[in-house]
Amino acid sequence: MTFCYRLLLLCSIVTSTLGLVYTSPRSAVAQTAVSACQTPALERFLRHKVASGETVESIAQRYNLTPDTIIAMNPALQNSKLTVGKEIQIPPYNGIVVEVPSGQTWRQIAAKYKIRPDVLFDVNGCQKNPRVVFVPEVKRSPNRPITQNPTSTPASKLVGYPLPELAKVALSYGWQTNPTNGEVFFHSGIDLLAAKGTPVKAIGDGTVAFADKQGTYGNLVIINHSGGLQSRYAHLDTIKVSVGQQMKKGDTVGSVGTTGTPTTNQPHLHFEVRSSSSLGWTAQDPKNYLQR
What is the pTM (predicted TM-score) of this model? Predict the structure, then answer.
């Protein structure tokens, strides 16, 4: 199968599967700040109707993409000019659509395209066995790199501990085996065992961005910190803060509980640290930010 034909086939799979319709460019980057997994990138493709005077370059600039990405998603543009009124596919990021070989894992795909496996997993909606995936471009971007390698030390002075006492780790950050069903999954935070009702503390100064029930997280509090960092406190029994509230390091955000869909029945705090990137809030290893 030739490269061009394979591109056309993949694009047709995306189109037929999703039934894409035109959406404004701003909605292309709109994301729910509290979702455990993003909506798969392939479900966030847009349809852009070409207007008079537009070029591949001007359309790419409008959506903060490169011309190469626009052409890769629309192979028919390789050998022809834009036609006014024609609809073309617009991906949410620079990147390519890849057909997943049978039996291949997320880690193998990530290694091949030199991208963090957890980022690839998250960008594609945490799907278990996808047939086609979107691989974001990690080498270049119009404004900045799409992904960054995790650092061994915090990117800013966000360092603290969310519980009064040092706690036993029930489940670490990264690829783990779910103790309840045996499935391998990416754990975006760290689970710290503590008695139900134990006070949960903010690990740094910031502003409460979310404080409510949220799907599998259960009762969740999100605090935005300086330096493009965010801390999340999940499975809480109670919430003691409200959106917009200014927090100081050590302030109580709630108490330990078992709400949502925890990976263990033991009361614990699910704690995350995320950093802002062009792919949304990307999970970081919390151990780099935990310090008593």
Answer: 0.60
